[in-house]
């Protein structure tokens, strides 16, 4: 499968994720989670990245970020990933690939689609049945967002966060929302309204991410 071009633009919002190689558990104990979050906490300052959400799961992670300078996003992720891998191997005495490959990323529209992404990410531990409520998971942005712990990472997103945010996150997303979002994850397709999606794909050369599979696309 061909790689999707990295089209990173100043001031756009990106959902970034990666999974352990072969689905392996990457974060085995509390220290592993804490170190990874500390890496995010230091790297966003160095590279002038706004972080709108994150969630660290046992075998994968999600980050929602907006680079003020597009080229800084890859530098931000490179620092996090390489530092994490080096520390992981040193601590556990291992070698080889930890992650399944380079991280995935896709652009998110600044409207209710972004709100859905934030809900999806912070609700991940609930869907995985690791906790009963997002507020119980220590390794996500949820507790920072609702001011249960000091905010060291999060920036305010360019949308209004509903009151009773925890209840909103704990509620299941619709099947339609999940299907569309997971399609963007799998194909790294911009996530948003159809008209916006088509326009941004044309502008950034991402047509292949939304082109129907198995038949030629017709672009006017």
From TrEMBL:
Residues 9-124 form the Transposase IS200-like domain. Transmembrane segments: none annotated. Pfam families: Y1_Tnp. GO terms for molecular function: DNA binding; transposase activity. SUPFAM superfamilies: Transposase IS200-like (SSF143422). GO terms for biological process: DNA transposition. PANTHER family: TRANSPOSASE IS200-LIKE DOMAIN-CONTAINING PROTEIN, TRANSPOSASE, Y1_TNP DOMAIN-CONTAINING. This is Transposase. It comes from candidate division WOR-3 bacterium. The lineage of its organism: Bacteria, Bacteria division WOR-3.
């Amino acid at each position: 499968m061909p790689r999707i071009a990295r089209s990173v633009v100043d001031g756009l919002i990106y959902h970034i994720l990666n999974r352990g190689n072969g689905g392996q558990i990457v974060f085995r104990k509390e220290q592993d989670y804490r170190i990874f979050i500390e890496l995010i906490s230091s790297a966003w300052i160095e590279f002038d990245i706004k972080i709108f959400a994150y969630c660290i799961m046992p075998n994968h992670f999600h980050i929602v970020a907006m680079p003020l300078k597009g080229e800084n996003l890859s530098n931000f992720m490179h620092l996090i990933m390489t530092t994490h891998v080096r520390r992981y191997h040193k601590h556990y005495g291992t070698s080889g690939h930890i992650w399944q490959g380079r991280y995935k990323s896709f652009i998110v529209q600044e409207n209710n689609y972004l709100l859905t992404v934030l809900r999806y990410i912070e609700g991940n531990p609930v869907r995985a049945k690791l906790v009963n409520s997002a507020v119980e998971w220590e390794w996500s942005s949820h507790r920072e967002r609702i001011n249960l712990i000091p905010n060291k990472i999060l920036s305010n997103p360019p949308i209004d966060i509903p009151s009773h945010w925890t209840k909103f996150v704990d509620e299941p997303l619709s099947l339609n929302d999940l299907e569309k979002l997971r399609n963007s994850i799998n194909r790294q397709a911009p996530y948003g309204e159809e008209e916006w999606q088509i326009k941004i794909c044309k502008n950034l050369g991402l047509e292949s991410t939304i082109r129907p599979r198995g038949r030629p696309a017709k672009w006017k």
